[in-house]
Amino acid sequence: MKQTLEGLEYAHNQGILHMDIKPGNLFRDNNGYITIIDFGIAKVIGEKADIIADVDNYTIKTETGDSTFTGTKGYASPEQQVGAKLTFASDIYSLGKTLKFLCTGKIDPDSIVGSRLLSKIIDKCTNDTPSKRYQNCAELRQALETPTPPLWENKECRNCGSKIPADAKFCPNCGQENPITPKPVLLFKCPR
């Protein structure tokens, strides 16, 4: 993901919106580096767009007013699917969907990501409102590099049950080595 973010950030710094970020467009080369491929529907936006003609036409409107959608439906942002204004947050949405697929192996919206941190990041990336997403790759990278919070709060010795410091190698009460027993993380699907 770090290499993908670096590549996408480079494209965004050039004013390029990829518009089709998905696992199939991330290519691992012989040296193990991830490369973003298939810029076939990419658009230039922002200040760099001034030198390109017709950059405001992100989607094509037909005579009936319907828009022709380009991209991959399972990964495209809501605004891309309806022909609304696109920003770099649109690529962030697709990257969030890609990260969810990499964590679960599915694009099913009901699939559960096992990591609380990644689940929270994915939820923010894939928010339906573009302004509530990460606005650029640097914000997303910072969120990914934030240390994971502990999954349990009360540390106790698995041998004698006494409270002990989180970094204890031995229980000060009974001498048990590696005494911390993590409490299980319960994952459940919200009924709503």
List keywords for this structure.
alpha+beta, 192 residues, 5 helices, two-stranded antiparallel sheet, two-stranded antiparallel ribbon
Question: What would you say this structure looks like, in words?
Answer:
The protein is an alpha+beta fold and 192 residues long. The protein is 28% helix and 7% strand. The strands form 3 sheets. A two-stranded antiparallel sheet has the order 1-4. The longest helix is centred in the middle third of the chain and has 17 residues, at 88-104.
Q: Rough shape? A: elongated
Q: Numbering strands along the chain, what is their spatial order in the largest sheet?
A: 1-4
Strand content: 5-15%
Question: Which whole number gives the mean pLDDT?
Answer: 80
Order of H and E elements: HEEEEEEHHHH
Short structural summary:
The protein is an alpha+beta fold and 192 residues long. It has helices at residues 2-13, 78-82, 88-104, 116-125, 137-145; strands at residues 16-17, 26-28, 34-36, 43-44, 60-61, 67-68.
Give the helix/strand layout:
Elements: H1 2-13, E1 16-17, E2 26-28, E3 34-36, E4 43-44, E5 60-61, E6 67-68, H2 78-82, H3 88-104, H4 116-125, H5 137-145
Antiparallel strand pairs: 1-4, 2-3, 5-6
